[in-house]
Amino acid sequence: MSEVVRNYYENNAEYEWERLNNPYSKVEFLSTIRLFEKYLPVTGHVCDVGSGPGRYSTWLLKQGYKVTLFEISQKELDIAASRILELGLQAEAYICDNATNMHVLSDETYDAVLVMGPLYHILDDCDRSKIIRDTSRILKKGGVAIFAYINSWGALKAGVTEFSEEFRDLNHLNKYLGELKLDENQGFTECYFSTPVKALEEITQGGFEIVSYAGTESFLAGMRPEITRLYKEDRIVYDHLLQVASESSELPQYRDATEHLHIVARKK
């Protein structure tokens, strides 16, 4: 992961804490928490690789897990440490480093590992494979990992309402049917967009068996403007939609066409 990515998160540290509070991204947060509740071990030590400002680490600490935060941005880690301290909680460790440098983490240490961010930005196939193999290495046998990808199929759907002007170029539109590797001038920073087929193959080749996968926006994918409107105008409908969407994020009719793809895998 490059300095371009590090600088982006250093400059947007507070935004990353608030992002999961916005009306549309809230479904991503709730769907992810449901995956934690369903698939993570009841107790144990979790390594949150790409922890950002600690939104998920904080939730895990509240549930009694021991948590190590591993993050490329020191500012993000500082926000996480401050929030965790305010809540009277304590993380096991805060490590500021690139996800491609996970060699600093010991073998077979963690009961679960979250990799929910780094793979969004790794353009090199070998580097992504290294992160996945290192995740397997630091997990205990039978441990669970959750890997997050940006899904190009879901981004295509979202683009209709969020950045349709890009689709004046038919060739660019067609690129969303496969992998996309964008530099900082093409994406919000350096970005890697995968497809469910490719992402599942990468995880399997990294020494994992697939347990399940989810599209975290579920049937609400690509509906940011409408969901934001409902949040403001009809909170009952909004709350009901969030509940059902988060509960149905693993259903095959939804999960392949959402912006965020979460893969639950177990170390063989």
Automatic annotation (TrEMBL):
Q: Name one GO molecular function term.
A: methyltransferase activity
- UniProt entry tagged with the keyword S-adenosyl-L-methionine: yes
Where does the source fall among the domains of life?
Bacteria
A single BP term in Gene Ontology:
methylation
Mind telling me which Gene3D superfamilies this protein's record contains? Vaccinia Virus protein VP39
Segments forming domain Methyltransferase = 46-143
Could you tell me what this protein is called? Class I SAM-dependent methyltransferase
